[in-house]
Amino acid sequence: EIVLTQSPGTLSLSPGLRATLSCRASQSLYSNYLAWYQQKPGQAPRLLIYGASSRATGIPDRFSGSGSGTDFTLTISRLEPEDFAVYYCQQYDNSPPGTFGQGTKLEIK
Amino acid sequence: EVQLVESGGGLVQPGGSLRLSCAASGFTVSSNYMSWVRQAPGKGLEWVSVIYNGGNTYYADSVKGRFTISRDNSKNTLYLQMSSLRAEDTAVYYCARVMFGFNFVEYWGQGTLVTVSS
Prior knowledge:
heterodimer; A: 109 residues; mainly beta; seven-stranded mixed sheet; 10 strands; B: 118 residues; four-stranded antiparallel sheet; 11 strands; globular
């Protein structure tokens, strides 16, 4: 089973700044089948990125995904107040159906 | 518009059973990959089960032999029959539509809480 490790566990930043979240896989995702989700308190997750770098429908362009192999990054270019949430990565290279990371909490500093 | 509405959650004693339902609209359940994903209180996300358009199914090891995923095409509804429930099954259960041909979630329901406790 592929294990995903997200870092940091918690990231404290101010609105307007850039956020960089990391997701590392225990073995290579040869097809770069990695997704990112955002979850706000009391809500279901929402798909942000799939295929490591493709934005889902309706996702603002301040969200971008990058990376390949074992190292992947979610970048939020300029933090808006509504971006503070928990972010999960998920690999679907080794299915079914794939595994989730443990999450990174992005909080307001 | 794609909508997924779960129901059937609640409080159940250890060893008991519960059936979750997910009413779908805006698309056809039987033509898609459908899944249940759960989240224990304060914890991360865990795949529970997937049913593919052809009817093949997948179960997490933690629920294999105890949970059954199914669908009713006439009602366009997904189900999760849960039996021999344990305290560690306590979680919010999300119904999800999985991207066809892949295994990431496109759409999520709002979730239904299952609490296993005496």
